[in-house]
Amino acid sequence: MTMPFIPYGQHRIDEEDIEAVVRVLRGEWLTQGPAIAEFESALSTICEVPHAVAVSSGTAALHCAFAAAGIIQGDEVITTPLTFSATAAAVAYCGGTPVFADIDARTYCLDSREVEKKITARTKAIVPVDFAGHPADYSALRAIADKYGLLLIADSCHALGAKYQGRPVGTYADMTILSFHPVKHIATGEGGAVLTLHDRFVEPLRVFRHHGIVKMPEQGGWYYEIERLGNNYRLTDIQAALGLSQLKKLDRFVERRREIAALYNRAFAPHEVVTTPYEASDVRSSYHLYLATLDVERIGKSRREIFDALREQGIGVQVHYTPLHLQPYYAKTYGYKPGDFPRAEAYYERAITLPLFPHLQDADVHRVTNVLLNQVSYATA
Ligand SMILES: *Cc1c(COP(=O)(O)O)cnc(C)c1O
């Protein structure tokens, strides 16, 4: 008998979500209507920030944020190589240069000491990623940003619902990026948002979302001007209604993710060859991903062999991510090479992402741990 395939992540849609979407479909607005404002207001309440600007994806949100931050040709933005391509690509969309700095070996987030070494006269912003749902080291990063007059822009696409020193995502950085892709904490199909603490970014974000259009009604009801190019990064009301409905379940989703992470942690605790994710004492991770790292030397198998064996047995493992400096585009364009970020590379050689999503059952978790422990166990026996 073949067991059903368990993906690494999956959205959870219920009848209430479906009703919310249908209500929009029966109404007057499909895009940029009242649901957008409601969704933005709910996001800013939950994240305890004054402003949220909803856009069509996390990638769009990054592009809007860098544009609003004034990133242009020649500017440098320091970020981690251990992220999804969009974090660095959005810097390049603005003409800026992504500059990588190595990670902390425990949290897999940007190491603030490495960041400081990369600062030049052209540096404009620091962009930490709350890797796997664990907030980056914000007090250290804030101190560096303030010391050098840089913006702190958080890619928190993994971390909606997380807390750092008791405060929610959105409150640590000048701007904070969220994604509502179906594998993330809440789903809108595609969708994203920029949260900001500062009034001055709100208008530029909204203008960039809508083609760079600045309306000037005093010059006529039709009249607008475009001083800088924007894009069509609008979220639809259909998506915003889904997002609003999903947000109501965020606490439950995060609670269940943490429960599952604890189940995995307990199962792997006796096995030294599996390192479970670290959670700093002043942090509450929202566990977008469950990352185990494998002591491949002691196990005597490559990560590839273990990965393939799990996939063959219906466990949808993943690897997040190949460090960006090893991707041909970034290597060629910016001259990076293997060995440049040894901690990110060491992590990458050993990492495996296990299934984690709110409706994953305890029995599924046990199946995953059994299959993985079978693969690594002869080394520990
Ligand atoms: C998902 C993700 C993005 C991009 O979000 P999309 O909504 O897929 O465009 C950016 N950065 C990180 C770290 C992500 O995980």
TrEMBL record:
<dbReference type="InterPro" id="IPR015421">
    <property type="entry name" value="PyrdxlP-dep_Trfase_major"/>
</dbReference>
<dbReference type="GO" id="GO:0000271">
    <property type="term" value="P:polysaccharide biosynthetic process"/>
</dbReference>
<dbReference type="GO" id="GO:0008483">
    <property type="term" value="F:transaminase activity"/>
</dbReference>
<dbReference type="InterPro" id="IPR000653">
    <property type="entry name" value="DegT/StrS_aminotransferase"/>
</dbReference>
<feature type="active site" description="Proton acceptor">
    <location>
        <position position="184"/>
    </location>
</feature>
<comment type="similarity">
    <text>Belongs to the DegT/DnrJ/EryC1 family.</text>
</comment>
<protein>
    <submittedName>
        <fullName>UDP-4-amino-4, 6-dideoxy-N-acetyl-beta-L-altrosamine transaminase</fullName>
    </submittedName>
</protein>
<dbReference type="Pfam" id="PF01041">
    <property type="entry name" value="DegT_DnrJ_EryC1"/>
</dbReference>
<dbReference type="InterPro" id="IPR020026">
    <property type="entry name" value="PseC"/>
</dbReference>
<dbReference type="InterPro" id="IPR015424">
    <property type="entry name" value="PyrdxlP-dep_Trfase"/>
</dbReference>
<feature type="modified residue" description="N6-(pyridoxal phosphate)lysine">
    <location>
        <position position="184"/>
    </location>
</feature>
<dbReference type="GO" id="GO:0030170">
    <property type="term" value="F:pyridoxal phosphate binding"/>
</dbReference>
<keyword id="KW-0663">Pyridoxal phosphate</keyword>
<dbReference type="InterPro" id="IPR015422">
    <property type="entry name" value="PyrdxlP-dep_Trfase_small"/>
</dbReference>
